Amino acid sequence: MRILLVEDDAMLGDALAKTLIQHAHAVDWVRDGRAASEHWDCTDYDMVLLDLGLPGRDGLRVLADARAAGRDTPVVIVTARDSLPDRVAGLDAGADDYLLKPFAVDELLARIRAIARRRSGRAKPVIEHLGLVLDLSERNGCFEGTQLTFTRREFALLTALLEQPGRVWTREQLVERLYGWNDGIASNALEVQIHALRRKLGADYIGTARGIGYFIPKTAPA
């Protein structure tokens, strides 16, 4: 997933960004409310992790403005504001979840996965399609009885393509999904990942829409 991390504490923000990247997410980390609004305005994020006590603009204002503008990106508020009125205000402003600091990173990751499952209509952290069983919590898979491991980029790419089998993703959409603003991207980086996945899953598992992008078929090719 492409995640906007909004956290003004340098140590916590750096640790969270590194952890999220290790778990196959692309991360844009900003440290004030105005930057959060600017990034959110121009990027189609899959999730926002939002602190409330921010310089420049309060996180609750950032959230309220985004919802008023029609942005339905899932939001997890991550804050030290622990009073009942604060929690109610955050959820009523449009947050999907509210996590109090300090917290265990594993719990945050589990909440991210839970929200992603609800958005996709899945009850379990597993995707099954055309002989592939992909475990979203363990970040590995089994294809036609063979256990597979994936790099974090391969896993992120495969997860994106499997969200909607049959949907053609443009190259630009996939690059935006896989890479943060500060990531260095080689010109053929996406093609390298596609090639690696085809070696593991077979040449026909990922299709090419010539001149457009890539897709995973809804049904097995004839």
Automatic annotation (TrEMBL):
Residues 124-218 form the OmpR/PhoB-type domain. It is found in: Cytoplasm. Residues 2-116 form the Response regulatory domain. Residues 124-218 bind DNA. Pfam families: Response_reg, Trans_reg_C. One of its GO terms (cellular component) is protein-DNA complex. Its main location: cytoplasm. One of its GO terms (biological process) is regulation of DNA-templated transcription. Keywords: Cytoplasm, DNA-binding, Phosphoprotein, Transcription, Transcription regulation, Two-component regulatory system. The modification 4-aspartylphosphate is found at residue 51. It comes from the Bacteria. One of its GO terms (molecular function) is transcription cis-regulatory region binding. InterPro entries: CheY-like_superfamily, OmpR/PhoB-type_DNA-bd, Sig_transdc_resp-reg_receiver, WalR-like, WH-like_DNA-bd_sf. This is Response regulator. It comes from Solimonas terrae.
